[in-house]
Design brief:
The chain is mainly beta. It has one domain: Porin (Beta Barrel), CATH 2.40.160. It is 13% helix and 55% strand. It is built from two helices and eight strands. Strands 1-2-3-4-5-6-7-8 form an eight-stranded antiparallel beta barrel. A hairpin with a 7-residue loop joins β5 and β6.
């Protein structure tokens, strides 16, 4: 127990000292200059072919905290040989609300709520395809490499899907979702 408290204290101390070095004011900054545009795209080929395009807009509430909205469009096609899997090609689309909090100038925490409309197979009758809306809670963190001038950058993040839904389009082995994106 003492070891956990010591590790927590050291992590907090390092985080707060790095946090203090990353401080600038947004006083007098017009609203338009607080907006950040970007998003992420993902392409996957193999048994599943997937193309994901997800633009977003963020608003700097403070120098360390950004909140925003985005839309997602995902085209997915199954290329395998499974006679019980009748969804050959489908689209998924939805909206999301995200929150990003910088611990340091480059390291951040990420939280996201996404509402996604997608098709899935009925588990009792595999040829019965249904379309539904689901809510997904994603949390994680990442690293951002800033562009010169500090206005935006390229980020890499790893999110965890907190839902335990077998019909989830995020049904990866451990619910881990890697992302690479950009904000301007």
């Amino acid at each position: 127990m003492k070891k956990r408290i010591l590790i927590t204290f050291i992590v907090a101390l390092v985080g707060f000292s790095a946090f203090a070095q990353f401080d600038y004011s947004l006083k007098g900054v017009p609203t338009i200059d607080r907006l950040r545009f970007g998003g992420y795209a993902n392409v996957q080929f193999g048994t599943w072919t997937a193309i994901d395009i997800s633009p977003s807009v963020g608003y700097l509430v403070s120098p360390r905290y950004m909140t925003g909205l985005g839309v997602s469009y995902i085209y997915a096609k199954y290329n395998g040989l499974n006679p019980f899997f009748s969804v050959e090609a489908t689209t998924r689309w939805g909206v999301r609300n995200f929150h990003r909090f910088f611990l340091t100038e480059s390291l951040f925490l990420w939280g996201e709520i996404e509402w996604l409309n997608y098709e899935y197979q009925n588990q009792f009758w595999p040829y019965d395809i249904e379309r539904t809306w689901s809510t997904f809670y994603l949390v994680g963190g990442g690293y951002m490499s800033r562009f010169p001038g500090g206005r935006g950058g390229i980020y890499v993040s790893v999110l965890v899907n907190l839902n335990n839904d077998p019909n989830s389009p995020y049904a990866t082995q451990y619910g881990i979702i890697p992302r690479i994106g950009v904000f301007f």
